[in-house]
Inverse folding.
């Protein structure tokens, strides 16, 4: 029973570590594993309740703590499950863009499997992340159908490529926080008169093997959020953001930009890790302004990467307006300022 009690205490405390807002990966990891943590807590709750030799005060504290942790985490993730009631899924629209976005994994060389997914979905846009010069050459054949490209390859697992069937406008590659981490910006005409602005991101994650803290990732998301707040046009932000949607940073990103997460009420769409079903997290995201909506949304087949790709069909609502300027309270502004201060002091 001692081992069970120790495990229970760990899983009672760990879900609340991200609430400390400390940027070290140790404190942020609990955000990523909330789904797995809920499952383990439920198992512990049942096992402790059955095996406890007697219901002492300590046992009741453990059971109460486990139940509190389960409820706390369930509240955080529930709206992203398929059980959450969806708002109206479709609207009158006057055009759409289809996008296939995928972290292809630099070391993965199964180019044909990924090309097969491109052919299967036949999107207007293809976005690849972790694409090095090998990937650039390996899928070069798609440029016959996608002649308009933006290429930012590197050999450090942060390359990025965009392929488009139609001409794109205002294309740029920016290094917002780190010299090896590019982001791609462009505009794509959804009709002759209406264009959609895209921000494609792949910030570095907080982890023992990469950035020790989340400072760089958090700062990149806040920089983009501030930029979008000043724009009043149809906008999409997408990519492998190395964060889960229920974290405070991503929730703040959504609040600052007044953008919508199309997965709400549809399911988690956990994209990483493709090889281990029991350790999957929703790390690949798309957010859009309220004048847009996502119709079809699917996770691709496994094509050899550690991520699944995501396919979206993005529609522009008729007679819709954009409002990205949302009001932030004092706590919100303080939180954003702390993120930017951490980055400046790094």
């Amino acid at each position: 029973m001692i081992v069970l009690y120790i495990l229970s205490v760990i899983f009672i405390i760990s879900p609340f570590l991200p609430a400390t807002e400390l940027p070290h990966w140790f404190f942020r990891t609990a955000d990523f594993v909330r789904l797995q943590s809920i499952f383990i807590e439920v198992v512990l709750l049942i096992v402790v309740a059955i095996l406890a030799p007697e219901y002492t005060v300590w046992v009741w504290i453990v059971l109460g703590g486990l139940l509190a942790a389960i409820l706390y985490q369930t509240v955080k993730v529930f709206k992203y499950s398929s059980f959450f009631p969806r708002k109206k899924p479709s609207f009158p629209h006057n055009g759409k863009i289809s996008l296939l976005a995928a972290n292809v994994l630099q070391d993965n060389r199964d180019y044909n499997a990924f090309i097969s997914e491109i052919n299967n979905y036949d999107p207007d846009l293809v976005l690849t992340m972790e694409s090095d010069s090998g990937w650039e050459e390996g899928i070069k054949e798609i440029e016959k159908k996608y002649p308009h490209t933006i290429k930012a390859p590197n050999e450090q697992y942060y390359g990025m490529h965009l392929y488009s069937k139609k001409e794109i406008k205002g294309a740029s590659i920016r290094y917002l926080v780190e010299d090896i981490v590019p982001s791609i910006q462009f505009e794509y005409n959804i009709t002759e008169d209406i264009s959609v602005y895209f921000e494609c991101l792949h910030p570095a994650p907080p982890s023992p093997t990469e950035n020790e803290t989340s400072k760089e990732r958090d700062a990149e998301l806040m920089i983009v959020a501030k930029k979008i707040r000043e724009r009043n046009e149809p906008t999409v932000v997408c990519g492998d953001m190395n964060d889960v949607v229920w974290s405070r940073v991503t929730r703040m990103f959504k609040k600052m930009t007044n953008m919508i997460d199309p997965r709400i009420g549809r399911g988690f769409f956990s994209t990483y890790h493709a090889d281990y079903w029991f350790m999957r997290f929703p790390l690949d995201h798309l957010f859009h302004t309220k004048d847009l909506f996502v119709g079809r949304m699917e996770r691709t087949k496994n094509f050899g990467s550690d991520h699944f790709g995501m396919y979206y069909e993005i529609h522009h609502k008729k007679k819709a307006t954009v409002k990205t300027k949302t009001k932030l309270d004092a706590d919100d502004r303080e939180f954003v300022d702390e993120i930017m201060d951490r980055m400046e002091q790094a």
Notes: The radius of gyration is 21 Å. The chain is about 35% helix and 20% strand. The chain has two domains: 2-80, 93-317. The chain has a mean pLDDT of 92.
